[in-house]
C-alpha cells in the first residue's frame, strides 16, 4: 500500500521531531523556565534567548526562583549611559526569608553551614532551623538596640556562622551591611565605617587563622576612635580570652540569649540597598559599591546553580573570606538561596600542612570546590603527594576565582586534584558584577573547556570588545577593552554617596556599555580570555588594590619625595607590588631601614597583602611623567621587565632623560641586591 505523500514526509521527519522534542525536554529539565521560552530547544538557544529576550528571561526566572511578598510590575528600567539600573520594580521580598525560612518549611534539619574552623577536624554544622533561629536573635538584638531600616551595620569578623547570621539579620530587619575583610588595618576599617556612616559595628574578641590569634577587637577599638558616629560595638567571643570592654561595647552572645527566636521580616523593595562592599579603584579612595535586594540575590543564586552544576544535596566548598564579594555571593547568598550546604573556611591552605584543603574535601565530602589561583600555585609547589593522600572522589566540579589562572596551575588542578575527571571552571567576574559573568559552564554536554580561559558568557550577559576609538570589534581572534553591552540584575547600582564617580568609572568610557576595566582576547572560536587590568589597579592574590592607594601611604613618609607603584608578575600571587621611591635631598635613612618602615606603614594603614614585594629606592631626580604630570607606569613596567625595546612612544614625556636615570638606578639596585621577589 502506498502512503500519501504528506504521511511519507511526516514519517521522514519523525526522527528529527523526536530529537527536537528530546532537546526541549532536556532543556526544560536543565532549566524549567525554558519550557515557556518560544523557539528554545537547546542550551545554545537558551543562551541566545536570555540575551535577545532579556526581560522575558529574567522575569520568568525571578518569578520561579524567588519568594515574593508582592509581585513586581516592571522587569527592567535601565539606561547605562546615565548609570540608571532598576530591576523588578514594584516587587517586595525579604532576602533572609529566601535564604532561610522557605527551606526551614521544607527541610528544617538540612545542614546549611559547615564551619571549617582553623583547628583541623573541629568542624561545626548548623541546620537551616538553627541558622534561622540565630539570625532572628541577632535581628531582634539589633532592633532592640536601635538599628533601623535603612541603617548600615559594619561587620568586621572572620568567616564564622555568627558572621553569616549577622549579615542575614541585617537583611531581615531592612538594614544594609558593610562587611570589611578582617585583615584590614584599623585605618582602612575606620575609613570604611565613616563612609558607610555606620553607628553599629559587629566584631569578635579575637580571630584565629593559621594557628595564630588576631586581635580584631583591638583593631576595632583603634578604628572607632576616629569614627564619632559609632554608638555601639557588638563583641562576640571566638576564643575564651577576655578583652577590655568599654561602655560602648556589648557582649553579643549574652544579649542574644535574651532574644526571641522569631523575628518579623521587613518587606523590602527590590531596589532597596542590600549591602555595601568596598573595593579599590584607580584613585586613592576605596569605592563603596552598592548592591540591591532582588537582582543581586537572583543572580547569585542562578550563577551558583548553573556555573558549578550544583544539585540538591551537594556540599559546596567556597574557601573565600566573607569580606570579599566571592564570600558574599558563593559562601552565603547564592548557596543559601538554593538551599545548599555551604562551607565556611576559617584557616589557610597550608595549616597545619599543605594537605588542609584536601583533608577537608575528604572529611566534609565536598562536591564543588571553589578557590583562588594563588592558592593553587602555592600548593602545586608542595607536590602531588599532599593531594593524593586524601580521598577526593566526592569532587564533581573545580572552580577558580579572583584572577586568570595560568595553564600550568590549571592543568595540575585538573589532573591531580580532580583526577582528570572534574571540569575546571575558570570564572571571570568582579565586585561590580555581583556574580560570575564569563565561565566555561554552563555549556552543552561534551563542550570544550580550554585551560586558562573563562570562555563563555553566562545567561543574560553580552560581552563586547572595544577598540581605542570606542568602536565595537566584531571579528574573532581579536583583543580589546572588555565591556558588557546590556544590564543584568546582579550588577552594582552605584557607588555609595558618589553616583557621579560610578558613571565616570563604568558608564562614560564607552557610552551605552558597562566598562569592566579589564582587557580580553576573543579566540577564533569566539571564546573569551581575560588579559588583565587596563587601569591602575593591581590584583594581588585575587585582592584588588589601587596603585594610588599604596602611593598615598608611601608618600606620607617624611623621607619620600614621590613614589610610583606598579604590578609585576609573581609566581605565587599572580601579581606582586613593585614600588619606585624617590627620596628627598634631606633623607638620611639607611635603605634597609627605610624599606622596613615603608612596609610597616603600608601594613598598618591598608593591609599586609598590599605591602610592596620590592622597593626600589632610586636616586634618580624624578620619575618619568607626561607633560601634564601623570606618572608613566607603563614605562616603569617595561623597565622592570627589561623590555627596553617595548618602551613605545616616549614623545609625551616631560623629560625622556628620566627614563635613562631609572634604568641606571635599576641596574645599580640589581647589582647591590641579589634576592629577587618576583
Automatic annotation (TrEMBL):
GN (gene name): acss1
Name assigned to this protein: Acetyl-coenzyme A synthetase
Residue stretches making up the AMP-binding enzyme C-terminal domain: 549-630
InterPro entries: Ac_CoA_lig (IPR011904), ACAS_N (IPR032387), AMP-bd_C (IPR025110), AMP-bd_C_sf (IPR045851), AMP-binding_CS (IPR020845), AMP-dep_synth/lig_dom (IPR000873), ANL_N_sf (IPR042099)
GO molecular function, one term: propionate-CoA ligase activity
GO biological process: acetyl-CoA biosynthetic process from acetate; lipid metabolic process
Signal peptide (UniProt feature, chain positions): none
Superkingdom per UniProt: Eukaryota
Pfam families named among the record's database cross-references: ACAS_N (PF16177), AMP-binding (PF00501), AMP-binding_C (PF13193)
Catalytic activity: acetate + ATP + CoA = acetyl-CoA + AMP + diphosphate; propanoate + ATP + CoA = propanoyl-CoA + AMP + diphosphate
PANTHER family per record: ACETYL-COENZYME A SYNTHETASE
Family: Belongs to the ATP-dependent AMP-binding enzyme family.
Occurrences of domain AMP-dependent synthetase/ligase (ranges): 101-488
EC number(s) per entry: 6.2.1.1
Gene Ontology CC terms, in alphabetical order: mitochondrion
Acetyl-coenzyme A synthetase N-terminal domain residues: 45-99
Record key words, sorted: ATP-binding, Ligase, Lipid metabolism, Nucleotide-binding
SUPFAM superfamilies: Acetyl-CoA synthetase-like
